[in-house]
């Protein structure tokens, strides 16, 4: 499908999805939601694509959230009608077991921060900043921001950000624990690629099984139940019977680099 508001590039098992509305700080309009849904659907279905990177065009913004001007004239019942996988086609995509990395190149506010929180890793430029300012305009962060912050940085720190609607820098985000690495703005692309290359060194089905076990395990009532249940998770079953599961030990024994096939 041709895209008007995003760009999609596929290279070396990596799908890069770029928000391309820098003139409005990459704010998301209704059409963009549908394009993102389609792009993530294609990534999820493509067995040759192992990692997705989402980023923003320009130097100012990763994503400033919803384009309020674009939705102001819509039917009130449809203003917040999102695609099947939620805001940006991502925040309710709970069945995606491939890694998603947010390369945050500027401000990530409101829905933009919620997109980043929905990713598995956040690599941020020094110039990036994060916040959920919804209460300042009489709204709340219902796109997962409230719940993901509580789970990712703990209750008191999350409450501090949520109740003040404060914006924090990339460095503070790293201290709070939701940012994995902060780099100079000019190094963001290279740093993100470095993370991708390290993941690609691993067996893709093992990575998917790991991600699925991580998130599903958090839903179990105890550590004991999580460890007992993991063998029944779908990605675990796929990994257990995969050709790559045999290739890893064989490559080690033969003192060579594994040749992963993703099957």
Automatic annotation (TrEMBL):
A Pfam family of this chain: ECH_1
InterPro entries referenced in this protein's UniProt entry, alphabetically: ClpP/crotonase-like_dom_sf, Enoyl-CoA_hyd/isom_CS, Enoyl-CoA_hydra/iso, Enoyl-CoA_hydra_C
Family membership: Belongs to the enoyl-CoA hydratase/isomerase family.
Record-given protein name: Enoyl-CoA hydratase
Organism this protein belongs to: Sneathiella chinensis
